[in-house]
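Here is one chain, start to finish.
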Amino acid sequence: MAEPYDPAAEGARTDFAGAMSYGDYLSLDAVLAAQHPLSGAHDEMLFLIQHQTSELWMKLMLHELSAARRAIAADRLQPAFKMLARVARIMEQLNSAWDVLRTMTPSDYTRFRDALGASSGFQSWQYRLIEFAAGNRNAAMLKPHAHRPEILALLEAELARPSLYDEALRAAARAGLPVPEEVLHRDPGAPWREHEGVTAAWAEVYADPEGHWPLYELAEKLVDFEDYFRRWRFNHVTTVERIIGMKRGTGGTGGVSYLRRMLEVELFPELWRVRTTL
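Its structure:
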């Protein structure tokens, strides 16, 4: 029988008195102590961790989206491609997480739903920042955050700057595409309105990919992002319907009916419409 393996024999450090350990670097004491179930229901821990980990992934998404937007604004498209590709992979992780939550049955959820009070994923300010940053800008969505001045300020500041899609179109204009002037100088806080001129500009890219390769790749990276985002929304709808049926959400929304309306929202409509024109 082989002797038990001792990593210290090969030089691995095992004494961390006065030195930074793995748990120290990751602040694991704080992270693992952040779950505070309010009921005695077994599945509440699943619900808490599902949403907490989703918020961590969203934090990374915002980090990557902000950097990608800055890179596009500086015409540094290659670094932006990597960041946007990472955002799509993060969305894939978020999509996979629904599979875990779907192991919770309606009976499981009813055992702790009342403990949630009026709290709801609808109130996630990070999710709202992601939508605002991408280009889905709706000032009515500021209202759930009015009680948190510091969060409201973050959201309002996001509405005051050009979105990821705005910066992509500005980059396209600088590269010589005929992006309409009214689009380039629009109010960044206003909701996006689909524009035939923007579709026509993207059509030039898709008609000659080799001649517009950086913009062609940028367009496809944006489509990848929205593709995964749409799947996330769809998985959200089906998971909610599977668990609560057509009940209203804890935050007061229509639940499934509200989430189905969100399926109709497009982040980059011209990039989808251009496929019909080719």
